[in-house]
Each structure stands twice: as C-alpha cells, then as structure tokens.
Amino acid sequence: MIIAHKEETALIHDTLVSGIRDFFEKNSFRQAILGLSGGIDSAVVAALAVEALGRENVWGILMPSRFSSEHSVKDAEALAKNLNCRHDIIPIERTFAALLETLEPLFQNRPFDVTEENMQARIRAVILMALSNKFHHILLNASNKSELSVGYSTLYGDSCGALCVIGDLYKRQVVDLAHYINRNGEVIPQNIILKPPSAELRPDQKDSDTLPEYAVLDAVLQYHLDNRYGVQEIVELGYDEDVVVTILYMVANSEYKRKQMPPVLKI
Fold first, then answer.
1. Is pTM beyond 0.90 here?
2. What is the reported pLDDT for 203?
3. Does residue 181 have a pLDDT over 50?
4. What is the CATH number of the domain that holds 26?
C-alpha cells in the first residue's frame, strides 16, 4: 500500500503526539521543558508537546549567547506566543564568560574552536536539567535523525533529555511536519521554517559549513541506513563519491554518541 506524502506526514504527526503522551503517562509525569533556539527542530518538538500535553504543561527556555542572532530570539518568542505556553529568557553570556575565565590558564591562548562551541551547548544543558529537577519537568530532546546519524550534536549538551521526540525523522521530514502543523494557520513562524539551519555557536555559523546540504545528506543517509546501500551503490545513483564517503565515515565514527542518546520515539 502506497501512502500519499501528506497522509504519511499526518500519520507521523499523530504517532509522535501519541508517543509523547504515552511516555509521560507511563512515567507519571505531566509537564515538559525544552530549550527554544529559534530553530525548526525545537519549534516542532514544542508544538507537538503542546498538542500532546496541553499548553499549560510545556515550558520553553530561550538561552541566547553572544552568537545568537536577534531574529532567532524573536522567532522563538513568536513561537511561544503562538503556542500560548510559558517561556523564559536566560542569557548564558555571564556563565560562558566565567567558564572561559576559569579555563583560561589551561587553554593557554589557544584559538577558539569546537571546544568553546560545545561549552555553550553544555551550559544550556545544565540550565535545562536544573529546572527539570527543581520543578519536576521532563526534558525533551530536539535532535533529528540526520544530525544524530552523523554525530552533529554535543555530547552532554543538546544530546541531553529524557525523550528524543524527532530522533527518527530526517531533516526533510521535520520540515514537512512543520508545514503540517501550520495546516490550519501559523503556529511555527515562517521564518523558522525558511531560514538556513544554524547552531549559532560561532559567528555567522550555518549547518552547511560542517555538513552537506540536507537534501543530499538525507538522501545518502536514507539509502545507507534504510536500504543498506554501500558507497558504490549510492555513487552509482549519481552522488559524489567524496561526499558519500564522508557521510558514511561520519555515521560510523559517531556510534558512541548515538549509544548515549535518550530513547527515541520510533515511527
């Protein structure tokens, strides 16, 4: 049986809403917390959580850094307003600066690199887990399958959480789901859907600085993970060999991260 694309997205939506609700009921929790970055992944997870648990049970935390763009904060605030759920802003600059000062004698003036990027993600995780503990909320993880497959996440940072809601969805499926959530009116602001994805952990950062474009990444991952194709089989479909080799290497090299992820809702 062939399911139409729109019908498939609707089924995915309903499955994830049901999965969130079931997870909370079975674990005797009522309330969820998550970081709102102004990006599409956290926006989709927030919208699903509100539908599953009710707006009064979802708490979004915005944690801008020195690298966060103004539009990302505004987009996250607009999302929270559309969802009518609680949100708070906790800037991480002072914490980040204090940590940099603490480590300065050991870093010995080495240049800014992924270390400082990861420090920001881990500061955010500490804040979210502190609020989770203090107020008995479950922390929702917003990593998608494309990122998880190639290790594009910070261990003990954005990989934290009790439940990974969209970890079985490729990036293109997350985008489709965002459009579906907006089927009866704007819930997720259009700018969140349309803007180039970015972790915003260094100046002018884009996901495409580190990863192939998601259209290529998702296709190669799907052939490899879902169809069990190897390098040569994927190259014969018309994909650049260097790109394919790089993607499959990243998949193999990040298994240790995937082993430490929270449980993923399977679709």
1. yes
2. 81
3. yes
4. 3.40.50.620
